[in-house]
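Customer escalation, tier 2.

The customer says the design service returned an amino acid string that "doesn't look like it belongs to this structure." They asked us to rerun it and document both sides in this ticket. The original structure tokens are below, unchanged.
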């Protein structure tokens, strides 16, 4: 499975961004997809995920501001609204499979005043 991310960049406080991730290869084994982020000096953390059954999970810090969508078989999107400086970091697409997981290369999101 290969993951291709797009949509990051620089945005002002309160702005919006939409991240996209498309999976290719042996996608039949994927059962969930999601987004993680890592800020400088911090551990990678779950932001949001969606299962192929449509269930979603969010970090408390993004509830009400971020929305995860996609079919969780080969696409996952993250709509980020009301962005804050603490949302800055590298965002990684993740695909969970029955026999492991795969990570994207990461995409930088910078929220600045």
């Amino acid at each position: 499975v290969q993951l291709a991310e797009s949509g990051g960049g620089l945005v002002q406080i309160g702005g919006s961004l939409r991240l996209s991730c498309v999976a290719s290869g042996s996608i039949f084994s994927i059962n969930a997809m999601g987004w993680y982020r890592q800020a400088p000096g911090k551990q990678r953390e779950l932001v949001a995920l969606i299962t192929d059954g449509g269930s979603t999970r969010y970090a408390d810090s993004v509830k009400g501001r971020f929305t995860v969508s996609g079919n969780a078989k080969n696409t996952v999107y993250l709509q980020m609204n009301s962005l804050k400086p603490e949302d800055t970091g590298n965002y990684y697409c993740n695909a969970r499979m029955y026999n492991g997981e795969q990570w994207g290369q990461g995409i930088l999101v910078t929220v600045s005043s």
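Tier 2 assessment: The sequence is consistent with the input. The mean pLDDT is 96. The first strand starts at residue 2 and ends at 6. Sent an explanation to the customer and offered a walkthrough call.
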